[in-house]
Amino acid sequence: MLKFLIKRIISLIPVVIFISIMLFVVMRSMPGDPVRYMLPPGSVQDPEIYQSLYDAMRKELGLDRNIVIQYFIWVSKMVTGDFGYSTLYQASVNDIIGEPLKNSILINVFSITLAFLISIPVGIKSAVKKDSLHDRGWQIFSLVGISMPTFFIGLSLIFVFALTLGWLPSGGMPYQNPGSPEYIAQFLRHLILPVTTLTLGALAGTIRYVRGAMLDALSKDYIRTARSKGLREKVVIYSHAFRNALIPVVTILGFSIVGLFGGSAITEQIFVWNGIGTVLIRALNVKDYNLVLVMNMFYAVLALGSNILMDVGYAIVDPRVKLD
């Protein structure tokens, strides 16, 4: 296992380098000027003083050098853990992304866990009781869930539970007395609606995927053989069919991790949640080079890491897969 992981990580290094080059070139090619955001035209009345301040700021940010030198400076800093300076927040990127990253991981871990804890038993039961009332009900739910965009689910939950019933806050995050019991209680209340939105968005498709995988596994010859031997139905379903149905489910789990983190940007905007999606959208609007690059590199590394986790997952659920 360790040897496999080391080989995979080494093989991903050229991929990461290529992605970093592409992101850097695309970002630098975008129209706009971050220095103009920090020093808006007209903020200094004297044009000569403004130009000298503008030139000094460009030099301080390294934007006066050619793109190749800028790239190598950026990479050398990234390797040492220095993510650069944010022109939007006018502070170190390291200081900016810590709290939003923690908040995004929190809502995504909750939603991914809930989605799979619900979808796996529901998908199995729907496959076992195909065309039953239970199966048809969840099929309708899945179709409706797949058809509705995330922002519509979020706005609907706000309308029902925040505006109409008044049970939950419509958005935002608590800031007073961090760490106190009252803060934790308020934080959990604010967490419910965004987590529910992401869970419902992931749940619909996952249920259909699990159901389809189980139906395919239950139609195999080894299942008929197991039943003909007189094995209990629970043993046939959970020890034989479900183990093989997990193989495609591992794939969707890996893609769900990347998809939810990417899709959570919309949810974070709707619920005014201080996550990396919100930070990324703000940074894109003002062309904050370093912040946008770090966020995109995070998504890229997350996608590559998910592929490694999928390979490990295949080996766990399928004994025919060897990590050599």
Describe the structure.
With 324 residues, the protein is mainly α. The protein folds into 2 domains: 32-82, no CATH class; 96-317, MetI-like fold (Orthogonal Bundle), CATH 1.10.3720. It is 77% helix and 1% strand. The chain is built from 12 helices and 2 strands. The protein has helices at residues 2-29, 34-38, 47-61, 67-79, 93-128, 133-147, 150-164, 181-218, 221-228, 233-270, 276-285, 289-317, and strands at 85-86, 91-92. It has a two-stranded antiparallel ribbon with strand order 1-2. Strand 1 and strand 2 form a beta hairpin. It is globular and about 90 Å long. 28% of the residues are buried.
Keywords:
324 residues, single chain, mainly alpha
- Kindly give the count of domains: 2
CATH class of the largest domain: Mainly Alpha
Do you know the CATH topology of the largest domain? Answer: MetI-like fold
Number of helices: 12
Mean pLDDT across all residues, rounded?
Answer: 81
Q: How would you spell out the order of helices and strands?
A: HHHHEEHHHHHHHH
Indicate the structural class: mainly alpha
Radius of gyration: 25 Å
CATH architecture tag of the largest domain: Orthogonal Bundle
The main pleated sheet reads as: 2 strands, antiparallel
Tertiary shape: globular
Proportion of strand residues: under 5%
Give helix % range: over 70%
- Determine the CATH superfamily of the largest domain: MetI-like
Distance between the termini: 8 Å
> What's the number of extended β-strand segments?
2
Strand order of the largest sheet: 1-2
